[in-house]
């Protein structure tokens, strides 16, 4: 009745939206203090001349884009960028191929592989080892008087092979260490993606007479592209930020002939020498490089997915 409806008090609706902001506020606070403020400070310092000469502090003096001109004109930046890309590709390509192979094996119900839990744990264990420990281990193993050369000489080699004095072997060791540390993590991610695919699609394909390779390339790979995109982008960012393994293995010099000097090692040289202006400029360039490449890869892969679905 109209009279009763006016007499009934409206209940206050409880809004829980504010609690969401309350719970995510600590993240944004920590992010602002430890990430956003240093990021803005890096941008700011990149436009200033600010370095140490012995005990004398020069600057800060505003110089505009002079730091960026210095970096690009001295010719080192393209060389170190090329080194970084080569080392990343030497690690990433075999890592993805091997991880896809292992993930396909472990998720194939027809193979019935025993002890899957044990193997998953073993392949992930290297990811838990610190890069510094891994680098020191490889440095000791492949040194001129290390156990690897001892084995080679016992097999008839006259002189020890200088692994860390040759460009190919040094890059190969860096790529091998990064591969061993990260292929387990990539395998777990790809396994999770493959287990999320509807098994009915595989059964239907087998009934239609599709081979294992056709099922993998026509069904599995297209359906796990979102995870592959994530793996590609995160691996690329990690590759561009490669530092600890080549830094320790080459004692921070990027030898031989600076062929193992990466972008972040180059940045560390400026920070170690207290040249904060050039260090900030290198950081800003690296930031925009990562952002541009990530956006390009994301748009490229997701664009193909959308065209394929259309």
TrEMBL record:
Topology term for the membrane: Multi-pass membrane protein
Domain ABC transmembrane type-1: residue ranges: 81-297
Subcellular location: Cell membrane
Transmembrane annotation, as ranges: 21-44, 85-106, 118-141, 223-243, 276-298
One GO term (biological process): transmembrane transport
InterPro entries: MetI-like, MetI-like_sf, UgpAE/MalFG_permease
Keyword annotations: Cell membrane, Membrane, Transmembrane, Transmembrane helix, Transport
Pfam families for this protein: BPD_transp_1
GO cellular component: a single term: plasma membrane
Protein family (similarity comment): Belongs to the binding-protein-dependent transport system permease family.
Protein name: Lactose transport system permease protein LacF
Gene transcribed to yield this protein: lacF_3
């Amino acid at each position: 009745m109209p009279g009763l409806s006016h007499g009934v008090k409206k209940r206050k609706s409880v809004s829980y939206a504010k609690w969401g902001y309350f719970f995510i506020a600590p993240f944004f606070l920590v992010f602002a203090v430890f990430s956003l403020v240093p990021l803005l400070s890096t941008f700011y310092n990149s436009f200033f001349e600010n370095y140490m000469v012995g005990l004398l502090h020069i600057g800060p003096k505003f110089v505009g884009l002079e730091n960026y001109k210095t970096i690009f004109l001295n010719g080192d930046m393209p060389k170190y960028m090329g080194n970084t890309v080569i080392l990343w590709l030497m690690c990433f390509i075999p890592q993805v191929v091997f991880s896809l192979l292992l993930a396909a094996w472990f998720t194939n119900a027809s193979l019935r592989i025993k002890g899957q839990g044990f193997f998953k744990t073993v392949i992930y264990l290297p990811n838990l080892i610190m890069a510094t420990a891994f680098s020191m281990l490889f440095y000791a193993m492949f040194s001129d008087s290390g156990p690897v050369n001892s084995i080679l000489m016992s097999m008839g080699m006259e002189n020890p092979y200088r692994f860390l004095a040759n460009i190919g072997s040094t890059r190969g060791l860096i790529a091998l260490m990064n591969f061993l540390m990260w292929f387990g993590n990539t395998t777990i991610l790809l396994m999770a993606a493959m287990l999320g695919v509807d098994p009915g699609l595989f059964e239907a394909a087998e009934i239609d007479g599709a081979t294992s390779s056709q099922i993998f390339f026509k069904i599995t790979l297209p359906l796990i592209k979102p995870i592959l995109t994530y793996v590609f982008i995160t691996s690329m960012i990690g590759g561009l930020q490669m530092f600890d393994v080549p830094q320790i293995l080459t004692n921070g010099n990027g030898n031989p002939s600076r062929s193992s000097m990466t972008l972040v090692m180059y940045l560390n040289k400026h920070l170690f020498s207290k040249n904060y202006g050039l260090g900030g400029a290198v950081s800003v360039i690296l930031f925009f490089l990562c952002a541009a490449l990530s956006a390009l890869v994301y748009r490229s892969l997701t664009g193909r997915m959308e065209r394929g679905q259309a």
